[in-house]
Amino acid sequence: MTAPEFHNKVIYENSRSFGTVFKSKCKETFFPDDPFRWLKNEPCTRRTRKTIKYFIPIFEWLPKYNFGLFKYDLLAGITIATLAIPQGISYANLARLPPIIGLYSSFVPPLIYAVFGSSKNLAVGTVAACSLLIAETIGEKVSPTEDLKLYLGLVYTATFFSGLLQTVMGVLRLGILVDFLSHSTILGFMGGTALLICLQQLKGMLGLHHFTTKTGVVPVLHAVFSHRDEWKWDSFVIGVIFLVFLQITRYVKNKKPKLFWVSAIAPMVVVVAGCLFAYFTHAEKHGIAIVGNLSKGINDPSIQLLNFDPKYISAPLKTGIITALIALAEGIAIGRSFAIAKNEQIDGNKEMIAFGLMNIVGSFTSCYLTTGPFSKTAVNYNAGCKTAMSNIVMSLCMLLVLLFFAPLFSYTPLVALSAIIMSAMLGLIEYEKAYHLFKTDKFDFLICISAFLVVSFIGMETGLMISVGLALIRALLYIARPASCKLGKILDTKLYRDVEQYPCATGIPGILILKLGSPMYFANCSYLSERIARWVRDEQELTESSGNVIEFVLLDLGGVTAIDIMGVETFVEVRKNLETKGIKMILINPRRDVMEKLIVTKFIDKIGKENVFLSTEDAIDACNFSLNSSKEVKEEDL
Amino acid sequence: MTAPEFHNKVIYENSRSFGTVFKSKCKETFFPDDPFRWLKNEPCTRRTRKTIKYFIPIFEWLPKYNFGLFKYDLLAGITIATLAIPQGISYANLARLPPIIGLYSSFVPPLIYAVFGSSKNLAVGTVAACSLLIAETIGEKVSPTEDLKLYLGLVYTATFFSGLLQTVMGVLRLGILVDFLSHSTILGFMGGTALLICLQQLKGMLGLHHFTTKTGVVPVLHAVFSHRDEWKWDSFVIGVIFLVFLQITRYVKNKKPKLFWVSAIAPMVVVVAGCLFAYFTHAEKHGIAIVGNLSKGINDPSIQLLNFDPKYISAPLKTGIITALIALAEGIAIGRSFAIAKNEQIDGNKEMIAFGLMNIVGSFTSCYLTTGPFSKTAVNYNAGCKTAMSNIVMSLCMLLVLLFFAPLFSYTPLVALSAIIMSAMLGLIEYEKAYHLFKTDKFDFLICISAFLVVSFIGMETGLMISVGLALIRALLYIARPASCKLGKILDTKLYRDVEQYPCATGIPGILILKLGSPMYFANCSYLSERIARWVRDEQELTESSGNVIEFVLLDLGGVTAIDIMGVETFVEVRKNLETKGIKMILINPRRDVMEKLIVTKFIDKIGKENVFLSTEDAIDACNFSLNSSKEVKEEDL
């Protein structure tokens, strides 16, 4: 009997140098989409031109722009402008800012985005969640009713920090940070925020004067019900009518997507109707509050208001960081999902730079935090936008409004704004998605529901932290307990599969095959060695009756893509443990990174190249050969 | 031509219920070593007896104990007692506690450990790093020279918190937390602490009176050199002689491991020699400080000193948490490594309970934090200990010392203690191991060296945090960027392997096979979809010249052991992306967890069961069949 020969040789020679590995890891970490691939094999001048076009996308699409495209963008731009006016005023109200700031914020930032942004569908605007977060965190430090100028300064400073962080993250290609905000987190956070905002709108709907500045469900409901004497039923009735109207248009849109424009212009209709109503009935004299004081004129410079006083700096810094991340998560996710629908590609890191620049410039020109909100982007997309030109059109419309029509909107009743906000927010409490999570992934549901509950009852930041924390714990739990399984041979094939998944797969006498999970890191070393010991123990108990003794443990490393020093030490430990039991350890198909580490730590020399195989089949043949020959020896001895 | 038939059927039916999955995950997370396996199939009374034996190991080994074993344990116990006396006094000095506390701490805790501990080799005692950490954090709040009673109270409180945390962690089976302290972190942290402690001993060696209470390298060196007028050369010479003696004994031990007892009793020899020298030369009158004031008598109760005053609570709480984790990491790692050497098993979570109980009882009886220090355990092991009885012997020796001989040690010169500590610490700066890390794993080296540098120059807690943080970042980076690779067929085999690792592996025209890394989680979804797009793009560029068009992308999921909802969404997205390019997506060998998730989210129905295969071979056959038949159709059309 001769030993089987293996054509399938394991290769040990092509280890990469540290430099090569490091470069490749950096590329995977920071440049996974290989953004500069077009730089290869290009002459210098074209390279420069391409680089400029890459970083400033407007140079890419503007030269090819034509009237045919413009028709679409004009329509889309006007549509989103009609949405931008009521939303701008409403969300500024939510952030406890003068309503005009909301209009300003739809003028400058879209222009900047049109130059630097790479998405063709994204519509720029303010968002409710960040507006509320700003009101909560900055409002804790300074009350806007007491010192509006300071409050404004801090809000602009927060916007500046957001923009700066976004730009820096984009330049350093730290899009990876945004990856850690999972959809489940965002879903729960947005839902909780929407609930809070809805409840807060009861102030406007009921026409209350006294209210809490806190954002939790409990204090808000308490404030609503403790001022029952202030409830204004006429205001409430008007509010409900507006709300029902808005919800009906939303329903129409959901039923017939082609009628999206009905719900897109509905907020504008509500504002205009509200204005007319307030103007002709002198509603403000009957106790129905109006926005008031919207003067003509474009954005004032606000750079002189930026406030870096150490006494206050912590609030805008914190707000800036949190809103920057939320805005990015929302904006990039939305940009990406619409890009997929059109089969385009957007570069997350480039988007960050565009968002960052528009917020930095925004903070200099009396704008607060903007991003790519879902509602506006969806309308833009549905209205048939072709390029970022629709943002420019919206911006120009806002310019006209600011120059000529702004005062008209000063008659907008607050109750109309409340109805608009409420209607928008009701769409964000996506209980169906949460239910889907519950049905399909309990841990994702836990992440989502804890964000929702903590945001609603305790605080927005805390909710975000806990939810992200849970998501990280899930990731770390994965690392701490990578799944391993026992393989068996599926009858009449050469396939080895998990015996629990494929009960038809059967073990081979004397041999235990384990497939290890990835990675083998410090956090799972003791687990792995204990788990392997348990596999061996269980197998020994199973085979005890049949008289078979385990002589080989085969570790299939085909799924292990990373290992650290403690992982290698685990191999050493496992091998020692097995040897004292008279069992031989064999490695199958170590992947490149693992192989390189096993070579550099000299583990391969220790275990011997004859104990490393390229495939399970080869390893089993070798083991069987050895089992048989030892049996033969025994028999000969007899 | 007929379609190929596949015997290797993918199984879709055996999905587990949420309860089953949850139970199995919990078992893997908290009971990976299946500690209660012996409870199966046992009658009730034996079960109770076994449970008691399990939780209180002394009932397991004591009934079988005999004189033959005791001989070994007696010798080992006496040997570690001779080490416990100088180490106890020295480390108490390091923790800025009265020296007698060090002796107390080697009396009560070993008794408790002997009852509850499961390791047969571990020797209980105080450790240098935790002593220094206590001095640093508690000393920041209260100076022991100003209010010793309060300082003592806070130290006992910290010990109590440590013990409580350790017990709770053990009961809740949170050994998983200790897993996140990697060896590289411990190596760097211990090295940094050892350097700090060495430098601090210059105070004792040079006989300085004025010194800093800070622990950084810079303030300590500054304190040493700014008091050059206080340097006492006679003290220094004595110290160096002791140190050289200790280092020689260590060298002897390293050369001839059988002479381990030479280095084990060397500190005792130094103490005795120092005492005799001080007694006969009246050294204290010549400016060589001695320990002084060691009164006879056993531990006083200290439960009344525990201090939960909110004014001070933060310091002992913080100290308690950090020292608990470090003590566990050190104690469990050491217990485990010696258990492996003897082919025994220890249960980390049970050890935690034992450590916790001994520290809780210790905090009630004038002891401070104890664990299983490496040096003592190694001596115990080498001295041939057989059971935890050696700890009882040591404890009884300490009792004798406390009752009769303690005052003798009051003549111990501080310089002798400094020499003992220095010698012990020099052994802990394991630059060779750090160099090994540098050679084999740069990231592990980074974790280690940053712990070392930050501990030495900034602070112990900060160093620990940064090092643990880096290790976590490594784990999270793995999750964010799991490695995928392109597979090719190795000639004359049916094996598909990474084409970069096995350059002999070649692709198949029209088909791109990718092996995805594990897990598919929220943090890597956008990466994965971008990476797959890049693989496709690269492949298209490669095959463009040869005229081949990619018609199939095969995703080998054999290595993916976990997926969350966003991972499934990634499949949806990737499939959509590929379809717009006219490419069909095919899944190969989804593992059980992945398959269950794909079924529950109905993705399997979406992609169609005909596009999921059990092996790459099958999938390729099916693709080739489809490629050929479409070719035939085309040819027929011609």
From TrEMBL, chains A, B:
Statement: the UniProt record of this protein carries the keyword Membrane: yes
Subcellular location: Membrane
SUPFAM superfamilies, sorted: SpoIIaa-like (SSF52091)
This protein's GO CC annotations: membrane
CDD domains referenced in this protein's UniProt entry, alphabetically: STAS_SulP_like_sulfate_transporter (cd07042)
Cited PROSITE patterns: SLC26A, STAS
Transmembrane portions of the chain: 69-85, 122-139, 151-174, 180-199, 235-253, 259-280, 321-340, 352-371, 383-405, 411-431
STAS domain mapped to chain residues: 501-623
Membrane topology: Multi-pass membrane protein
InterPro entries the record matches: S04_transporter_CS, SLC26A/SulP_dom, SLC26A/SulP_fam, STAS_dom, STAS_dom_sf
Gene3D superfamilies: STAS domain
Superkingdom field: Eukaryota
NCBIfam families (UniProt xref): sulP
Official protein name in the record: STAS domain-containing protein
Species annotation: Fraxinus pennsylvanica
